[in-house]
Specification:
By secondary structure, the protein is of the alpha/beta class. The chain folds into 2 domains: 153 residues, Ribosomal Protein L4, Chain: A, CATH 3.40.1370.10; 50 residues, no CATH class. The chain is built from 7 helices and 6 strands; from the N terminus they run ββαααβαβαβαβα. A 6-stranded mixed sheet has the order 2-1-3-6-4-5. Helix 2 crosses helix 3 and helix 4 crosses helix 5.
């Protein structure tokens, strides 16, 4: 069973915490992790891009010049792809890019991502993340105390206390906040370090065990 240190927002170690091996100590499946990231990025795509083929561009019904005798190459329409204002050869059309993963695959990929952070010592547990006021400076000071720069801050659930942290962290471009029910593989891998409250760890173990 993996054991990690628990820190306070001053950056001092205050406790130790044993993590559930069924979530934070699984065998890492890189293929599933890759599939989860590809699916998430693909599902973000709107797929609304569109261009016209030569059949859809208006005009071009008349032959620009006669077939022979002009010195020009023969042309049948001034809306052919090689003409300015012509159609696009393989024009993109609206389509659905979404990729589906089943629940077991998503869960296994998430556990692999969490395990990778623990093994890389990029998983920091806070005893609590409480602010007396929603000030960006206070969040930045806490992260500096933990020697963390690019971080994903995971909170247990939406409430008044956690909302202060979310608001205060919004102005820091290298920090993203998330609740346990919104964490995903892409964000876990994108940010160098996960900063997770003790309550959030308990919630993760309860939800994903």
């Amino acid at each position: 069973m993996a054991s990690v240190s628990v820190y306070n927002i001053e950056g001092k170690e205050v406790d130790k915490l044993n993590l559930n091996d069924s979530i934070f100590g699984v065998e890492i499946n890189e293929h599933l992790v890759h599939m989860a990231v590809v699916a998430q990025l693909a599902n973000k795509r709107q797929g609304t891009q569109s261009a016209k083929t030569r059949a859809e561009v208006s005009g071009g019904g008349r032959k620009p010049w006669r077939q022979k005798g002009t010195g020009h190459a023969r042309q049948g329409s001034n809306r052919s792809p090689q003409w300015t204002g012509g159609g696009v050869v393989f024009a993109p059309k609206p389509r659905d890019y979404s990729i589906k993963l089943n629940k077991k695959e998503k869960r296994a990929a998430l556990k692999s991502a969490l395990t990778s952070r623990v093994l890389a010592n990029k998983f920091i547990v806070l005893d609590e993340f409480k602010l007396d006021e929603a000030k960006t400076k206070k969040v930045q000071t806490a992260l500096n105390n933990l020697k963390v720069n690019k971080a994903l801050v995971v909170l247990s659930a939406k409430n008044e206390e956690n909302d202060k942290v979310v608001i205060a962290a919004n102005n820091i471009p290298t920090v993203k906040t998330a609740f346990v029910n919104t964490i995903n593989v892409y964000d876990i891998l994108k940010y160098d370090t996960m900063v997770v409250t003790k309550d959030a760890v308990a919630t993760i173990e309860e939800v994903y065990a």
